[in-house]
Specification:
Elements: E1 8-14, H1 19-31, E2 39-45, H2 51-58, E3 66-73, H3 88-94, H4 96-99, E4 105-109, E5 113-114, E6 132-136, H5 142-149, E7 159-167, H6 168-173, H7 176-184, H8 195-204, E8 208-210, H9 227-230, H10 236-245, E9 248-249, H11 263-270, H12 275-278, H13 285-294, H14 299-319
Parallel strand pairs: 1-2, 1-4, 2-3, 6-8
Antiparallel strand pairs: 4-7, 5-9, 6-7
Helix pairs in contact: 7-8
Length: about 325
């Protein structure tokens, strides 16, 4: 459980060419925080950001939510043998327990998430000797065989690693970072579909707390065609919470490249970034036009209605 006198540590990892999605995620975290919440935002970056970019990112906090910003240069911290097989961000988060010795708990988020909730309540969870808190993925399609291939005692306890409440104290005690790095260098790891995510699930299995699904609402939590699978793990109230205020995780299509489920939520925040940050990455002009149509009265409602009708029809055809 977190010491409430300390700012709550939120960790993100990104490369210099991913500053715009990262800034969009950070803005959503800040804007969705309760007034009394205080965060310490920690960015793990593959190379030092320019002072001007750091200042622009810090300038996202117009509400005084972030009491401390840290930008940690990760160059040289990961052995070169790991590069090429794994994403840089996935490698960096493995080192979080070692990088933050002053904290017993931290929250890690991928930078393709839009946060629509205050995150402070997560830090009141007593993790005990559990290593992680995460949102379990539903058993659908190819996931079923994949989860079983990992030889987990219970395949329904496979979590998405893009949103992790991390018990840093316990992870340090069991030398979790080293175990992760060692596993990722084995022959077994070559068969992993989602390398570090699979490794987290193997090593932490049985020591994971299930978080409400609205904290990490992945793509398969939205279409009605997947509702039956969702309800095998969660409740109908959970389904409603995901659709009303879930933190949207764009695990497949990216909204800055084109249409994606809940894509408008990402653009709602992106358009409020300062122009100096927007210039750091080119986004899809077609996606921007689509967003403008989406937000247009009547036309946008018709378009959204057609997509919902398509979703409903797909579900009905599946049940026949």
């Amino acid at each position: 459980m977190m010491n409430t006198t300390m700012p709550l540590p939120i960790v993100v990892c990104y490369t210099t060419n991913f500053v715009v999605p990262a800034a969009t995620t950070l803005l959503s975290i800040i804007e969705s925080a309760d007034p009394n919440t205080t965060y310490h935002i920690i960015s793990l970056v593959e190379a030092p950001l320019s002072p001007s970019i750091e200042q622009r990112i810090k300038g996202l906090d117009k509400r005084g939510i972030v009491s401390k910003w840290s930008f940690i240069d990760m160059s040289g911290r990961v052995p070169s043998a790991y590069f090429g097989s794994f994403s840089i961000g996935s490698l960096y988060r493995i080192l979080i327990p070692k990088l933050l010795p002053e904290y017993d708990t931290a929250l890690y988020l991928d930078c393709d998430i839009i946060v629509q909730n205050d995150l402070s309540k997560l830090f009141s969870i007593d993790l005990g000797e559990n290593l992680l808190g995460g949102v379990r993925e539903t058993l659908i399609g190819a996931n079923i065989d994949h989860f079983k291939s990992l030889e987990l005692n219970d395949p329904t306890w496979y979590i998405n690693s893009g949103f992790l409440l991390m018990n840093l104290k316990e992870m340090r005690r069991v030398n979790f970072s080293k175990k992760m790095m060692d596993l990722l260098q084995t022959e077994r790891a070559k068969s992993f579909v989602f390398p570090d995510q699979d490794a987290y699930n193997i090593l932490a299995h049985g020591k994971i707390i299930s978080l409400p699904p609205y904290y990490n609402s992945i793509r398969t939590f939205y279409p009605s065609i997947y509702k039956d699978a969702f309800l095998k793990l969660y409740t109908n109230d959970d389904w409603k919470a995901v659709h009303r205020h879930g933190n949207v995780h764009y695990t497949s299509a990216k909204p800055w490249k084109g249409y994606a489920i809940q894509f408008d939520k990402w653009w709602d925040y992106y358009i409020h970034l300062p122009e100096s940050l927007k210039q750091q990455m080119e986004v899809s002009k077609k996606a921007h036009k689509l967003y403008n149509i989406w937000k247009t009265p009547i036309i946008g409602q018709i378009f959204q209605g057609l997509l919902k009708a398509k979703d409903t029809l797909t579900t009905l055809l599946k049940k026949k």
